[in-house]
Design brief:
- The complex is a heterodimer of chains A (194) and B (417).
- The relative contact order of chain A is 0.13.
- Chain A is α+β, with helices and mostly antiparallel strands.
- Chain A has a 4-stranded antiparallel beta sheet, with helices on both faces.
- In chain A, α2 packs across α4.
- Chain B is mainly α.
- The relative contact order of chain B is 0.10.
- The chains are: A alpha+beta (194), B mainly alpha (417).
- At the A-B interface, α2, α3, α4 and α6 of A face α3, α6 and α19 of B.
């Protein structure tokens, strides 16, 4: 076949055009494909930590501490007060779990107010020990719970304000009464299915 | 196949078709013919309408469908009473091991219908020591609980699985030391709408009947629909009658059809008459018969005669149709909750909605825990003493000793101590 000078390059490019060279394909791209679980957990933790900080700073600290309009108490619904930051995290976790079964995040500790928040799985026990012994570090693991595989990440949860320490130290159910600002009080445990 | 054989086959097919058709009709329209066993006290009124719970299938493993049906009727109540064990708290994968022992994410794990041999109060079909599945270490955390039997968690005044609004520790602590009867105790006075009586339709008028009352009394009708008196009407099963009840009822009332006018009369709609006399015109049990000899009835008579202020009397409705405050557009309205059974099982549900309007917490707990006193409609004083408040006081003393008088900082995010 004798092709013109223009036709030949076009024909040569045709396979490339058909296969989507240049980034345009017939199938939608897999957003997030290839994100390692560790990075995914870090991103989730960053969002959770930011939300909790925003709630503590702009809602609790402003309304309860500075302007003293309303308090933050444990039985907030009954007492018509604000949920505590740790409760806000739990409430949001329950909402997230309803949407994505298996995604969970919670606060665990060696000295929890509610003993149900003691570490229970091997990864939780090892992870909490790790973050206490290695300040500033996170802990990552894979585990099988109820026949499903999960990626579990544990991040140190530090007392960033005097209020954190005071609330725990003053609670009748707290097994520890000597927390100080800067202490690692426990860990935020983030878990999602693999 | 021979001719007689073909005839038999055809007959068999017609019979099978007829049976299937009838079973389908029975499921949808209601017929007790298909019931496998006696239903619970809370459901027998609607037992013939299988599709209320079994919307699509009868497969035993279809737990999701059954749970959906439970939540359809009971979900709102669980939210209102701030359910201590909503299914969502068990979604965390770390609960996998406990969930294998008891699938607490499903209502049917503890409430299985058609199991009369297992069924206890409130339709519970698991034994009282069931809390052990997750709480078998409570004694290690609570010295006050050491030595308590594992089946004692649900004892009167201790813990409820769902409604602990009167039993959580901070609430108990706030009400230590209250007198048996609070000075000036009153129940909230109902906020009745301004609709003139003349606008009420008479029975038989177009637009009269159960549905007509909803227009102005939506909350009362909605709560009545959840009650044992009203749930049949709510599910298009025809009105409940005392003759169908499992409680003792007066012979003269057996065929009375229960709806709004059966208690509130026709035309006059006198609420106070409905508060006592209408109840006693049907109910014939020991508790009901003892009412008119009780101090509560004396107070009711005094209030009706104007000798005592509004809200000081105690009628049947005062306890069994508690006054509920609801905020609407910045103002509060008080209405009578017409779900007559809503606060009975467990009876600690009455503590905040009813008893504590006039009585201290300890007295209320003791009275409700005394089954004989309850049967005698509270004639006399409680002979039962619930240890709950004493346990709380003991923990407070131990805590103070542990802290060695240490005070927490006032600058603590406003967090209440």
């Amino acid at each position: 076949m004798n092709l013109s000078g223009t036709a030949r390059p076009l024909l040569l490019c045709l396979p490339l055009l058909l296969t989507g060279c240049g980034g345009s394909t017939n199938k939608p791209s897999s957003l997030g494909a290839g994100v390692p679980p560790r990075a995914m957990a870090d991103y989730i933790h960053a969002v959770l930590a930011a939300d909790r900080a925003a709630y503590s700073r702009y809602v609790i600290n402003r309304l309860a501490v500075e302007e003293k309009i309303i308090k933050a108490t444990e039985h907030w619904k009954d007492e018509r007060t604000l949920p505590l930051p740790a409760q806000m995290l739990r409430l949001s976790s329950e909402i997230a779990q309803e949407k994505y079964d298996g995604l969970s995040y919670s606060l665990l500790s060696m000295w929890p107010i509610n003993h149900k928040n003691l570490p229970r799985t091997d990864a939780e026990k090892t992870g909490l020990k790790h973050i206490l012994e290695h300040p500033g570090e996170a802990y990552y693991a894979e585990e099988v719970l109820g026949d499903k595989r999960y990626f579990t990440a544990i991040y140190p949860d530090v007392a960033v304000a005097q209020a954190c320490a005071d609330c725990h130290n003053g609670h009748p159910d707290s097994p520890r009464v000597d927390f100080k600002v800067g202490d690692t009080m426990g860990g935020m445990v983030i878990r999602f299915p693999l | 196949m021979s001719r007689p054989g073909k005839k038999l086959t055809a007959l068999g097919m017609v019979a099978a078709l007829g049976i299937c058709s009838y079973m389908t009709y029975a499921m949808v329209k209601g017929d007790r013919f298909l019931l496998p066993a006696q239903t619970s006290a809370g459901h027998y009124q609607i037992e013939e309408k299988c599709t209320l719970c079994h919307e699509k299938s009868f497969k035993g493993a279809n737990i999701a469908e059954l749970d959906k049906a439970c939540v359809k009727c009971h979900g709102g109540t669980l939210v209102d009473e701030e359910d201590s064990h909503p299914s969502r708290i068990f979604n965390d994968p770390r609960n996998a091991a406990q969930l294998r022992m008891l699938n607490a994410r499903s209502c049917t794990a503890c409430h299985r219908e058609h199991k009369p041999a297992l069924t206890r109060s409130a339709g519970v079909t698991v034994p009282p020591n069931n809390c052990d599945a997750c709480h078998n270490d409570v004694a290690s955390e609570r010295p006050t609980h050491r030595g308590l039997a594992s089946n004692s968690c649900e004892n009167a005044g201790c813990h409820n699985y769902h409604d602990n609004t009167a039993l959580y520790e901070d609430f108990l602590r706030k009400h230590i030391g209250e007198p048996d009867t609070l000075p000036g105790g009153r129940v909230p006075v109902r906020g009745i709408g301004a609709t003139p009586v003349a606008r009420h339709p008479a029975p038989g008028d177009p637009g009269s009947g159960y549905g007509a009352c909803k227009e102005c009394h939506s909350r009362e009708v909605a709560s009545f629909s959840k009650s044992r008196e009203g749930m049949r009407l709510a599910h298009d099963l025809g009105p409940m009658t005392p003759g169908q009840a499992r409680l003792p009822m007066k012979a003269a009332a057996m065929s009375l059809k229960l709806n709004c006018t059966s208690c509130h009369g026709a035309g006059a709609f006198i609420a106070n008459d409905a508060a006592v006399e209408k109840c006693l015109s049907c109910h014939d049990d020991r508790h009901s018969r003892a009412y008119k000899a009780s101090i509560h009835y004396t107070l009711w008579l005094d209030e009706q005669a104007g000798r005592k202020p509004a809200g000081s009397g105690v009628s049947c409705a005062t306890c069994h149709m508690p006054r509920t405050q609801e905020e609407t557009r910045g103002s509060f309205r008080v209405f009578a909750d017409h779900n007559v059974n809503g606060n009975q099982r467990p009876n600690e549900k009455m503590i905040r909605s009813v008893c504590m309007n006039c009585h201290g917490l300890k007295f209320s707990m003791d009275a409700l825990a005394d089954n004989v006193l309850v049967q005698e409609n509270f004639r006399g004083r409680p002979s039962v003493h619930v240890a709950t408040l004493a346990m709380v006081e003991s923990r407070m003393r131990a805590r103070m000793a542990h802290l060695n008088g240490k005070q927490t900082s006032d600058d603590n995010m406003g967090v209440a101590k």
